[in-house]
Specification:
This protein has 14 helices and 28 strands. By secondary structure, the chain is α+β, with helices and mostly antiparallel strands. It has an eight-stranded mixed sheet with strand order 5-18-13-6-7-8-19-28, sandwiched between helices. Strands 22, 23, 24, 25, 26 and 27 form a six-stranded mixed sheet that branches. It has a two-stranded antiparallel sheet with strand order 1-2. The protein starts with a helix and ends in an 8-residue tail after the last strand.
């Protein structure tokens, strides 16, 4: 019997079976008195039953052994006073020995519920109950719909899917009766290559899209291609007709142009079990709620919700805004931000009990693609997500508008004026928040080159060359500078002689004020500014030379931060407290 099974059989919380051994400073499994306590056996002769997993941040599970200082001895049993009850081991309760936990023991906790994956993976650290968790995770082979493996040194996109399938005890009142499990809540998580930022882009379930033909492997092992759909609701990309998460991934890629690398999927139980594991999540509402349909009752202001109440908070449509799906998405994003803050709090990160329960709940609720189906790979992904600062995790929703083909509002379509730019920013790995990562040397260069007066934009004279950016970038940047920034004395000088990774601006000393103005407009760093010589433009006048490198993200997008013009894009960040209205 494994640890979890033994604990359940004896009504013992599994978290209580892990105790701190004062001789080794590590958490070890202490079985209850009814279970036989045997001395540790050398690895070569150990019986299979003696190998029990323990929390190991380094991604390994080892048999229980005696402390190094006492070869051959078993871990000492609980101490018993004369004629009295068992005394707890030092470190179990009461006074704890002061011992700094190694980084290896603080491996990142991986969670995967619909609501918790983005937040917990990006924010928390915990213990990995490896052997047990490995068996919890379910996988689906999505073929070429996603990446074949996880690459630590690249940007990546994960589709987080919450289904409306009524599986699990107490879920009969949620979702659509008889649903095969549609894509009810979907978030495309983009994590930048440099791990400085992440974007969680919600996809409305009622968005009208084309669902492509989808090769799938059915439950009986047969392979079949499910025919696509024209002008259908996005949520039909999953479940209906045998469509698997790979179909939803293909649908996102076809309609946005954004390649999806991996997916994570969970049902209603994920929200209930995960919020219970962390002992509730704080939510805030601007008015009291008494929703008869979802049974959600909350007072005005802050409340803590978990289990059924947390799911009701996320599912209710009639308590916020205009009672539609788009307003429900905003509430979900606010909830995610709150959950992330809870997970990154010391109250959670320093509690082995909470972390163990959370790991159990998350992995039991999780289905992922085969490429990331091992706990080791999930841990690697979590460690990358952990690097992203919470203030640079942006929540946004795909820009949409009411479907003009409908007289009664029921579905939405892409907003052609803003959605393509949002998709392009994600494809180009551009943050939606201000991200500044300047090293000391670069800061010194900026101080020397950017401080001083700036010429008026109308006085800036520059020629633009394409030295590695996308085709047509020089002309598009010229149009932007002339029409939006007032840099009218500019010209397109075609392609440079070669390609370069970084965008640069070369100028003569007497053009420094012009260079500072253009740097301010484009977000050029001090290292991008190259004091040198001026060139001559088509009119024979001295001019600066701007070469657009491979790092150029597009016209109007600053190079040192995200400042793309995205009107009507309602966004928030994970570090901000918001109240649902």
């Amino acid at each position: 019997m494994d640890t979890q099974g033994r604990g359940r059989a004896e009504n013992v919380d599994p978290a209580d079976q892990w105790v701190l051994n004062p001789q080794t400073g590590e958490y070890e499994l202490r079985l209850s008195p009814s279970a036989p306590q045997s001395a540790a056996t050398p690895p070569s002769t150990a019986a299979p039953q003696s190998a029990v997993p323990r929390p190991r941040g380094a991604g390994t599970a080892r048999t229980r052994t005696a402390p190094p200082s006492s070869p051959g001895r078993a871990v000492p049993p609980p101490r018993r006073g004369p004629g009295g009850p068992e005394e707890p081991l030092p470190g179990r309760r009461g006074r704890r020995p002061v011992k700094k936990t190694s980084k290896a023991k603080k491996a990142l906790l991986w969670t995967g519920g619909t609501m918790a994956f983005v937040m917990v993976a990006a924010a928390g650290a915990g213990y990995l109950y490896l052997r047990h968790l490995e068996g919890n995770v379910q996988t689906t082979d999505v073929g070429d719909a996603g990446a074949s493996d996880f690459k630590k040194d690249e940007a990546f996109n994960v589709l987080v899917i919450g289904t409306d399938k009524r599986t699990g005890e107490g879920n009969e009142g949620y979702g659509d009766k008889g649903s095969v499990g549609h894509a009810d809540t979907t978030i495309l998580l983009h994590v930048s290559k440099d791990r400085s930022n992440a974007t969680a882009l919600s996809i409305p379930r009622d968005l009208i899209v084309d669902v492509p033909d989808c090769p799938t492997t059915q439950e009986d092992g047969t392979k079949t291609t499910v025919p696509g759909l024209r002008a259908a609701r996005f949520n039909r990309s999953l479940g209906e007709g045998g469509r698997d998460p790979g179909c939803t991934m293909r649908t996102v890629t076809q309609n946005t142009g954004i390649p999806v690398d991996h997916f994570m999927m969970a049902d209603f139980n994920a929200v209930k079990t995960l919020t219970t594991a962390v002992e509730g999540v704080k939510v805030c509402v601007t008015k009291a709620i008494d929703d008869e349909e979802s049974k959600l009752v909350l007072p005005k202001g802050e409340s803590t919700v978990e289990g059924e109440k947390a799911l009701a908070f996320l599912r209710t449509r009639h308590s916020f805004g205009n009672q539609g799906d788009l307003d429900r998405i905003k509430v979900q994003q606010q909830f995610l931000g709150s959950l992330m803050r809870k997970m990154s709090s010391g109250d959670t990160l320093t509690s082995p009990r909470k972390l163990l329960k959370l790991a159990e709940a998350a992995t039991e609720a999780l289905t992922v693609d085969s490429a990331i189906g091992s706990v080791g790979t999930l841990k690697d992904m979590a460690l990358e997500l952990k690097k992203v600062p919470t203030k640079n995790i942006t929540f946004a929703t795909i820009p949409v508008k009411d479907n003009p083909a409908e007289k009664v509002r029921a579905t939405v379509v892409f907003n052609e004026s803003t959605a393509p730019q949002v998709f392009q920013m994600i494809k180009d790995d551009v943050s939606f928040t201000e991200v500044k990562q300047q090293k000391a040397k670069e800061k010194a260069e900026i101080a020397a080159r950017l401080k001083g007066t700036k010429a008026d934009a109308s006085e800036v004279r520059v020629r633009i060359l394409n030295g590695g950016a996308a085709a047509g970038s020089a002309q598009r940047e010229l149009d932007h500078l002339q029409n939006s920034e007032g840099v009218t004395k500019s010209e397109n000088a075609g392609n440079s002689d070669g390609t370069q990774a970084k965008t640069t601006l070369e100028y003569a000393p007497e053009q420094a004020d012009q260079a500072r103005r253009l740097a301010d407009i484009m977000g050029l760093s001090g290292s991008a500014m190259k004091p040198g010589e001026s060139a001559t433009n088509a009119q024979g006048l001295p001019t600066m030379t701007l070469i657009l490198g491979e790092d150029f993200k597009g016209a109007g997008i600053k190079l040192d931060a995200a400042s793309a013009q995205t009107p009507d894009l309602d966004k928030s960040t994970a570090d901000k407290v918001q109240c649902a209205s």
